[in-house]
Write a structure and sequence with these properties.
Layout: H1 10-23, E1 35-39, E2 45-50, H2 53-56, H3 63-75, E3 84-89, H4 93-101, E4 106-111, E5 136-138, H5 143-159
Parallel strand pairs: 3-4, 4-5
Antiparallel strand pairs: 1-2, 1-3
Length: 164
């Protein structure tokens, strides 16, 4: 786990609140509560996503992919240059790869994923110099809140009191 690369921007904290709110949308399912938003260069939300793998039966329905798809649809373009992806959990290899392919220049995340993270913990896809696009990473934004949401979810799953 690497430290955040720069001080936490108040705007990033506010955007993380939107991602946390998106994560709450998983409560009606058994999906892991992860939320994401894509923010345009002016600070407006272009796309919002939350985990829907269980709900949709789609292994690619991660919060980041859902938010990226929504943003691209809204823009009518696959290049999300100048945008920021904000997500409650460190992106996995698939989501980090999708971000790179969408040309997103900045990823802001909350909690680290020490088992599957691909933004600095297990792998570092976002800053892999052999790729054709590199990403600024801002880690640990509202980390305690993001991690608590996940801990509570998994504790409920283990106790059998989780969502249907």
């Amino acid at each position: 786990m690497s430290p955040a690369l720069q001080p936490v921007d108040p705007e990033h904290r506010a955007w993380m609140g939107l991602a946390l709110h998106a994560a709450e949308r998983t409560r009606a399912s058994v999906d892991v509560p992860i939320g994401a938003v894509v923010i345009d260069p002016e600070g407006d939300v272009l796309g919002t996503g939350w985990n829907q793998r269980e709900e949709l039966g789609d292994p690619t329905a991660h919060a980041e992919v859902q938010a990226i798809r929504a943003a691209a649809l809204r823009l009518g373009a696959w290049r999300l240059e100048g945008c920021t992806l904000v997500v409650t959990l460190e992106p996995c290899a698939m989501c980090a790869g999708a971000s790179v392919l969408a040309r997103i220049p900045r990823v802001v995340f909350g909690a680290w994923d020490e088992k599957a993270g691909a933004s600095g913990s297990v792998f570092d896809v976002l800053r892999e110099r052999r790729l054709n696009h590199w990403t600024e990473v801002v880690a640990g934004v509202r980390e305690d809140e993001c991690a608590a949401l996940l801990r509570e979810f998994f504790a409920a799953q283990r106790s059998g009191s989780g969502a249907p």
